[in-house]
């Protein structure tokens, strides 16, 4: 089975610790982006803009 299971943070420090420790590891493994291509979510998913 592939994937990740994340538990909701129990305290504000938990999310900071995750970002500081886990995100760099995931980026080094190529499974979490270092930067995004578009400026907005709409751009990133190539969604059309409303008329």
UniProtKB/TrEMBL annotation:
Gene3D superfamilies found in the cross-reference section: Luciferase-like domain (3.20.20.30)
Origin superkingdom: Bacteria
UniProt-recorded name of the protein: Uncharacterized protein
């Amino acid at each position: 089975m592939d994937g990740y299971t994340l538990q909701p943070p129990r305290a504000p420090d938990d999310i900071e610790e995750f970002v500081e420790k886990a995100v760099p590891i995931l980026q080094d493994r190529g499974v979490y982006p270092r930067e995004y291509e578009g400026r907005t979510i709409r751009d990133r998913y190539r969604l059309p803009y409303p008329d």
